[in-house]
């Protein structure tokens, strides 16, 4: 039936082929599944309608069969009561209902066959939908892995480029300059420390000289 054609086309096609033209495979997969869900919902409505038709013909068939049996019993009772004319009328009406039985039986069998076929197709659609969902999980994982690999490859392709090498060499030279400046600063600090020590020694020497002079004066005074 045309209602199932769209799903049938999708289920027979390879999802991998559909993904070849997709800019974003994950979004496209979700879109396909949403479309299939909509198709299944429409199919369920169609199946429900066909089942309703099947039940309607079944009910009409059963009612007609009951009338056939009823008229036959009534004809028998009329004969037992000696009323042949009434029995004849009952049998005539029985024949009318028997024709209805024959007609409803054909319609019911056709309706049931159609309903059974739609039920089968609906089950197949739902099974295929579940298979697609499972396949989607695998394809999404593959797509994510491919994206990650692509990003890594792009990053790795920039390793060892001239710009990076030159920049790395320039930074190495900068570090050497900083180390040289630090070493020079340390040497300058040592030089300044030695000068301070010498000046301090001179200061200490003058104090000793003064102390010696005072002792000398004190000695002369005592004499």
Descriptive overview:
It is a single chain. This protein has 2 domains: 2-159, Helix Hairpins; 166-223. Helix content is 92%, strand content 0%. It is rod-shaped, with a radius of gyration of 53 Å. The termini are far apart. It contains 5 helices and no strands. The chain has helices at 5-12, 15-20, 25-80, 84-157, 162-222. Residues 19-205 form a coiled coil. Belongs to the PspA/Vipp/IM30 family.
Features:
223 residues; mainly alpha; Helix Hairpins; 2 domains; 5 helices; 92% helix
CATH architecture of the largest domain: Orthogonal Bundle
Find the CATH topology of the largest domain: Helix Hairpins
Low-confidence stretches at least 5 residues in length (pLDDT < 50)?
none
Mean pLDDT: 80
Q: Which band does the percent of strand residues land in? A: under 5%
Global Rg: 53 Å
**Through-space gap between termini:** 145 Å
Helical content, roughly?
over 70%
Which term fits the overall shape?
rod-shaped
Number of strands: 0
- What summary fits the major beta sheet? none
- Count the domains: 2
Q: State the secondary-structure class.
A: mainly alpha
CATH class of the largest domain: Mainly Alpha
> How would you spell out the order of helices and strands?
HHHHH
Task: Give me the number of helical elements.
Answer: 5
SSE blueprint and pairings:
Blueprint lengths: L4 H8 L2 H6 L4 H56 L3 H74 L4 H61 L1
Helix pairs in contact: 3-4
Keywords: Coiled coil
Family: Belongs to the PspA/Vipp/IM30 family.
Organism: Vulcanibacillus modesticaldus
């Amino acid at each position: 039936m045309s209602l199932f054609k769209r799903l049938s086309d999708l289920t027979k096609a390879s999802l991998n082929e559909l993904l070849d033209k997709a800019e974003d495979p994950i979004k496209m997969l979700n879109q396909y599944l949403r479309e299939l869900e909509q198709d299944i919902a429409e199919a369920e409505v169609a199946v429900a309608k066909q089942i309703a038709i099947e039940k309607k013909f079944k009910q009409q068939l059963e009612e007609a069969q009951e009338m056939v049996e009823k008229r036959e019993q009534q004809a028998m009772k009329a004969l037992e009561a000696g009323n042949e004319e009434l029995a004849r009328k009952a049998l005539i009406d029985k024949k009318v209902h028997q024709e209805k039985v024959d007609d409803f039986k054909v319609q019911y069998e056709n309706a049931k066959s159609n309903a059974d076929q739609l039920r089968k197709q609906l089950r197949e659609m739902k099974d295929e939908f579940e298979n697609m969902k499972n396949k989607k999980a695998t394809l999404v994982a593959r797509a994510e892995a491919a994206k990650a690999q692509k990003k890594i490859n792009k990053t790795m392709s920039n390793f060892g480029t001239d710009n990076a090498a030159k920049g790395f060499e320039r930074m190495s030279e900068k570090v050497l300059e900083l180390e040289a400046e630090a070493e020079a600063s340390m040497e300058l600090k040592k030089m300044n420390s030695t000068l301070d020590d010498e000046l301090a020694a001179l200061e200490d020497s003058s104090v000793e000289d003064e102390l010696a002079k005072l002792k000398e004066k004190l000695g002369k005074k005592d004499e």
